[in-house]
Amino acid sequence: MCGCDVAENGQLCAECWGKFNWIGHPLCSICGYPFPADLDLGPHPMCPVCAAGKNELDWLRSACVYDDVSKSVMLPFKHASALKYRDLMAKSMINALRDAPPFDIVMPVPLSCQRLFKRGYNQATLLARPIARHFNVAMDVGSVKRRHRADMGHKTYRQRHDNIRGVFHVANPNRVRGRTILIVDDVMTSGATFAELRKVLKKAGARAIYGVTFCRVVKAI
Hints:
Elements: H1 14-17, H2 48-51, E1 59-65, H3 68-79, H4 86-96, E2 105-108, H5 113-119, H6 123-135, E3 138-139, E4 144-146, H7 157-164, E5 168-170, H8 173-176, E6 180-188, H9 192-203, E7 208-216
Parallel strand pairs: 1-7, 2-3, 2-6, 6-7
Antiparallel strand pairs: 4-5
Helix pairs in contact: 4-6
């Protein structure tokens, strides 16, 4: 990030590493939401959303908080072909998955054909590939299709959920039926995308839906 030499691709120098707000314990045992470091909430703490049963996924983790530092990596990777950041992002996501329950399939959040053609790549697929390789599980990029909708950037929480409703459909239910699926994305904002994917995959017979992102929006509980 700063231009100094590192030992291998995907590593950070100590100064750049220290700028990230990495998510660690204590955190919600279901969605991975970070709690203040000085709280002792026991071995299986839950945030108010998960305690109320309103969690978007059955299990979720993110590597770091979405802020100016993580945004300076995520946004160029997503929109400006800064693929040099892939290894850094994927490695930090693999580390966030160190306590993950077993899963059968790694599935990147799909893009619509129009957006894939315009961007030239699916950033979630680039992140999912090394994750699938690390955990030695299959990657599925074809079982779920996405219809084209307007970009969700700068939309409100309610607008995001309205915009994503009905956008996904399972094209091959046989591949997901009875499976535990890990969905991969670059950032979690409102959780609308994950919630919609969970709904259609569970309807198609998937056993459980997990998720992992590089960064996530964190607001005071």
